[in-house]
Amino acid sequence: MTPLMEVRNVSKHFGGLRAVSAVSFAVQTGEIIGLIGPNGAGKTTLFALLSGFLPLTTGQIRFQGNSITGFPPRRLCHVGIARTFQVVQPFREMTVFENVKVASVFGDPMKHPKDVTEQEVNDILKGTGLVTLANHYPSSLSLPQLKRLEVARAMATRPRLLLLDEVLAGLNPMEVKKSLPFIQSLNADHGITILMIEHNLRAIMEVCNRILVLNFGLLIFDGTPEAAVRDADVIQAYLGRNASA
Is the separation of the CB atoms in 161 and 27 below 8 Å? Predict the structure, then answer.
């Protein structure tokens, strides 16, 4: 079976700094994959490469069997890849409904009629728990609601692969607990494959069926959450000591 996305020997150098070095992995349709690693490991840089915000130094990226190497974010959006950002930046002068509608129109190369688009927006707002806030402005939303708005805007572009950048960051334990079923529903109910950066390891263990671990720009682990917590290289990367120490 052809992977949804294939990342082949992808590297990004900033002068003499190798932020990402020869990273290779595949994403299968239907997976929820966690991308973890210590601060400065290269996670955000890798996301920027996958979403077209930075050009590759070397390597290739394929999506649904076709090369997307060098595609800008706009083209990646139209082939089915969307991302969120850790720091939410909605259009402050637009309502929640308008924010999601803008994303829907931008992500729709078919240019559906207005009533179809607006129905899709309403469906997304219902699915993300924001429908009662449709006419509110972002300034009146809580952080968890703003995070959901960020996801709703990404969903409105009709992605097959959704890149979530620390969607749980800044949430308290109860808010995180409430968010995990929501993330799982994006995958199970909407058929969206998910690759997510997250520092909350407990949440990653609960929601992901596979984990990628970066350290100093290198992919040091690719496997199940259960295997990750027993892996000597992963333990050393996080704790700075050997597993047997």
Answer: yes
Dist CA 203 CA 184 (whole Å): 11
How does DSSP classify residue 157? T
Q: Element (H or E) spanning 116, and its range?
A: helix 114-127
The 10 Å Cβ neighbour count of residue 51 is 21
| pLDDT digits 0-9 by tens, 147-172 | 999 999 999 999 999 999 999 999 99
Q: Which of 64, 86, 60, 81 is nearest to 155 (CA)?
A: 81
Closest Cα to residue 243, out of 222, 223, 227?
227
Q: What is the pLDDT of residues 24-61, one digit of tens each?
A: 999 999 999 999 999 999 999 999 999 999 999 999 99
What's the alpha-carbon Rg for the chain, to the nearest Å?
Answer: 18
- 91: phi then psi, degrees, rounded to nearest 5: -75, 105
**pTM score, whole prediction:** 0.92
